TrEMBL record:
UniProt source species: Sciaenops ocellatus (Red drum)
GO molecular function: macrophage colony-stimulating factor receptor binding
Pfam families in the record: IL34 (PF15036)
Signal peptide: 1-25
GO CC, alphabetical: extracellular space
Name the record gives this protein: Interleukin-34
Entries under PANTHER family matching the protein: INTERLEUKIN-34
One biological process term in Gene Ontology: positive regulation of macrophage differentiation
């Protein structure tokens, strides 16, 4: 009788763990949506701060892997069968951490866009903190697929060891466009709208927005609910 009771308890415990796993491993935990929507609000002002406050054709030097577009996400998904969105989300945070640092670094203390960018970085770090807390520590210790690990290693190289061929010159505005579009793609559940379901990972979706001139510089044909 004792053995039967023990077996039932163990079975119940295992079932409980199985029920918890999908919640812990969900690609976009509900807690992520609030800081991401806050980021989205900040990004809606990027045209003013990243284009109008810079000289025409102004560019900054970034690692070629920091030019992280929707096409990069599509290519990685094709290269790695069954690639988990969580892996790409981790990479997204790593990429844009470097992007924001490089944009701030080129701004003098009194640059009119510096307070905006500093606030954007703060909100980004808030979102990153929630992201880390929303998953078990083991998730961040798992090995990455080889091609993703290569990208990660390049991103974390010391700048003086990066060959000149790996640097790109990109406008701050373009970098934040990429930031915005890839955020919507990888965390799409946080950006639902009353419109018919949108494919935020489609380049044509963003191009359509520009043609219609529907706030093309904001991430937000989405409206916070």
């Amino acid at each position: 009788m004792v053995q039967l009771s023990t077996s039932v308890c163990l079975l119940g415990g295992l079932l409980g763990l199985f029920l918890l796993v999908p919640v812990q491993m969900a690609p976009t935990p509900a807690s992520m949506c609030t800081p991401l929507k806050t980021l989205n609000d900040s990004l809606s002002h990027r045209r003013r701060y990243m284009k109008h406050n810079f000289p025409i054709n102004y560019t900054i030097r970034v690692h070629h892997n920091e030019v992280f577009k929707l096409s990069n996400i599509s290519r990685m998904r094709l290269q790695v069968e069954g690639l988990d969105d969580l892996v790409l989300q981790r990479l997204w945070f790593q990429v844009n951490q470097g992007v924001l640092k490089k944009i701030i670094r080129v701004m003098p203390e009194r640059h009119p866009s510096r307070p905006y960018t500093a606030e954007l970085e703060r909100r980004f770090r808030d979102a990153e903190g929630v992201f880390v807390q929303s998953h078990p520590a083991e998730v961040f210790q798992q090995e990455l697929p080889e091609s993703i690990q290569d990208t990660w290693d390049h991103l974390t190289e010391e700048p003086d060891r990066v060959p000149e061929s790996r640097w790109r010159y990109v406008s701050p505005k373009s970098l934040l466009d990429n930031f915005c579009h890839t955020m919507h793609c990888l965390f799409s559940k946080c950006f639902v709208s009353t419109e018919e379901q949108q494919d935020y990972c489609s380049v044509s979706y963003w191009r359509k927005g520009r043609k219609k001139d529907l706030q093309p510089e904001s991430c937000s044909r989405y409206r916070g609910r």
